[in-house]
Amino acid sequence: MPPLPDPKGVFLNVPYDEEFSSLYVAYIVGLILLGLVPHLASEIPGGDRRLNRIIQLIQSCRYSIHDLSRVELNVAPSATPRFNMPLELGMTITWQILNPNQHTWFVCESEPYRIQRSASDLNGTDPYIHGGTVEGVFRELCNAFPHDRAPSVPQMLIVYFLVANALDSVFEKNGTRNPYSRSVFLDLCSLSVSLGTFYPPGKPAV
Amino acid sequence: MTRPVAHITAPWPTQEEMEKSLGISKARKRALQAIVNELKAKLSNWEEAPVTSVEPEKRRKRASAA
After folding, report:
1. Which one, A31, A110, A116, A163, has least CB within 10 Å?
2. What is the number of domains present in chain A?
3. Does a structural domain hold residue A135?
4. The CA-based dihedral angle spanning residues A174, A180, A185, A188, taken in that order and rounded to the nearest 10 degrees
5. Considering the domain boundaries, does residue A202 fall inside one?
6. Residue A80 pLDDT greater than 80, yes or no
7. Does B42 sit within 8 Å of A173, measured CB to CB?
8. Which residue of B2, B9, B30, B32 to mutate against A (max A Cβ within 10 Å)?
């Protein structure tokens, strides 16, 4: 049996592409400001088969967020659908059914009702609709993880703006422009934690 | 339709607990210190912005009192 999951751990199942990077940073900032700990498949060191590492990460997190907002076909030839996010969602659902008290999963989308066409087996599960905006991600995170002591969405937006503006410095420090790389992910988390101290839990919203 | 909601009961983590859970090393924190200081300075100014915006009003009052 795997160990009990981290009660603050959130596995982030998101597309690793450039167009999604602003929402990806928003998820990191938002989760950390809500006192949660985001985890990404790319942060696990290699060595084992990728799928094994992902299932271990899902098992180690109490929650997971599956963003299915980018289901479009890749424009580069040959047009290919993106199967990774639904695949990892399927693995998570299986784990949650087998261990109902150890995991809760959330589905996010940018458009209402689209999921009923793209993944009709999920009918009966209402996704969180962020509208493809940073503000929408913060709003939906606050809906999914309600807490009286959470910072406000405007406060989250300020921290996001600062972290996003530091992205070039973080890229330069790590010698990569890939925001999903392990080192950049950890730096973004570290920056968010440091700035989060400006908004201690319970501080009145701006 | 149902939408899950997380009701978190665990206490709010401290900065140290967050960093430990995320696996952020002291070396990584040190390497980021310059960026953190810059961002914190910007955030401080941001927080103070509403206060400074009152300054002209205060100055006007002071001037009219004089």
Report:
1. A116
2. 1
3. yes
4. 90
5. no
6. no
7. no
8. B32
